[in-house]
Design a protein that fits this description.
This protein has 15 helices and 15 strands. The protein has about 425 residues and is of the alpha/beta class.
Length: about 425
């Protein structure tokens, strides 16, 4: 009896000051979370996981089905090892076509814009190459015009779209007028301009964290730890613990550049000797290759560049490596050795299920060498799970869709 009184007292304390709408949103949010993390689930199992009554779950889920947020998927498959009497459980799942989401990712070299369902099925996509001189207004106009066109092509009104999620890589923050307010990253100006153009809700965030969220695979288990390494002119990192993006990485995702991967290694002003910034950025690779660029030391690359360094690009370097160009291979393998150390240390430090590499553009030979290096470094028993991101270039907009879906669907409990 005393235990029952205590539980009732706790319930009163937890719900005191919470409006009926907030309580409703919280319950719906929890139900959506259970289904997302476990796949199609019965009302009975949802009630058990959330410690709610079956009657309460039935009322809530029936309303969500009537609204099109959820859908009944039929009876659960027969479990021959645990046969039960009576009717089989009815599974319910998230209706992927309840509403649609727009996403845009402002990367270092391109902008990816697209339209998808809630579960990430691509309906439309478009890519625009950019550089540091691309005007901010041109970027905004491209995103807005592309979103309008995609909605029109799919016969969608603004009411059928949850909203637009935009990710911006840190090297583009200044260009897109990002600000840090009270310790939080803000794209208020960008949001205002985009909402004015589109008349839909817009969310913006650090692209690195969005890539980490987009790479979560709930089929690997309901609760995951994940580390994402993002390569580019600047190195960035995002960490997910128990499915939640760690807030410290929202503003300071570039702190990873200070990590040391070679004792007493290359120097860079403001960084420790042998840091990731000094050893592993594409700029470092380019400068090292330039030092030995010649017909004698890099014959394949030399020929691919028509004997002129001014014709160098990373596609030619990648080709040269895959073809076994000795000088390029030596430099690249040296950098991969250091990358392997960074990957393993991150995996161990953050108890990570997976380490995801974003924006590396590795060929098959490069991937094979990295995996072999890691295996030789730590052994099969300690080998971390490595994955290469599925959200590159024209597919990268899906990370923006992830932001829109997370904020406007899951966190809102399907109420918008």
């Amino acid at each position: 009896m005393w235990g029952l009184i205590q539980r009732k007292a706790c319930f009163i304390m937890e719900t005191k000051g919470i409006s009926k709408l907030d309580l409703k949103r919280r319950n719906r949010k929890q139900i959506l979370r259970v289904i997302r993390e476990n796949g199609p689930t019965s009302r009975v199992d949802i009630a058990a996981k959330l410690a709610l009554t079956r009657a309460a779950v039935t009322i809530i889920t029936n309303e969500m089905i009537a609204q099109g947020v959820l859908e009944e998927l039929g009876e659960a498959p027969i479990d021959y090892e645990h046969l039960q009497k009576g009717r089989r459980k009815i599974l319910i799942g998230i209706n992927a076509n309840y509403k649609f989401v727009l996403g845009a990712m402002i990367n270092e070299n391109n902008i990816s814009v697209g339209l998808s369902t809630i579960d990430g099925e691509i309906l439309d996509k478009e890519l625009l190459n950019i550089n540091a001189k691309t005007d901010q207004q041109d970027i905004i106009s491209f995103i807005a015009n592309t979103c309008h066109k995609m909605m029109k092509n799919s016969n969608l009104t603004s009411k059928q779209v949850l909203g637009l999620g935009i990710g911006v890589v840190p090297t583009r923050w200044e260009q897109m007028r990002a600000e840090v307010e009270n310790g939080k990253l803000s794209f208020s100006k960008l949001r205002f301009m985009m909402e004015l153009e589109l008349n839909i809700h817009v969310e913006c965030a650090n692209a690195v964290g969005l890539y980490a969220l987009a790479n979560l695979e709930f089929t690997d288990g309901p609760r995951q730890n994940l580390v994402l390494l993002h390569s580019g002119a600047q190195y960035n990192c995002a960490v997910i613990t128990d499915n939640d993006l760690q807030a410290d990485y929202e503003i300071h995702s570039d702190n990873i550049e200070k990590c040391i991967v070679r004792r007493n290694g290359r120097k860079a002003p403001g960084f420790p000797d042998g840091s990731i910034y000094a050893e592993l950025t594409p700029t470092v690779f380019e400068s090292r290759v330039k030092e030995i660029f010649s017909e004698d030391q890099t014959p394949i690359l030399y020929k691919a560049c028509d004997c002129k360094w001014s014709n160098f690009d990373f596609k030619k370097a990648k080709y040269s490596y895959e073809e076994g160009d000795k000088g390029v291979v030596t430099i690249m393998n040296d950098m991969l050795d250091m990358l392997a150390i960074a990957i393993y240390n991150l995996a161990v430090t953050h108890f990570s299920n997976r380490v995801v590499l974003q924006n590396y553009g590795f060929g098959e030979g490069t991937k094979a060498y990295l995996m072999k290096t890691l295996l030789n470094l730590v052994g099969e028993e300690n080998m971390p799970k490595i994955a290469f991101s599925n959200f590159e270039n024209e597919r990268s907009f899906l990370a923006g869709c992830t932001l829109a879906t997370e904020k406007m669907f899951y966190e809102a409990g399907g109420l918008n």
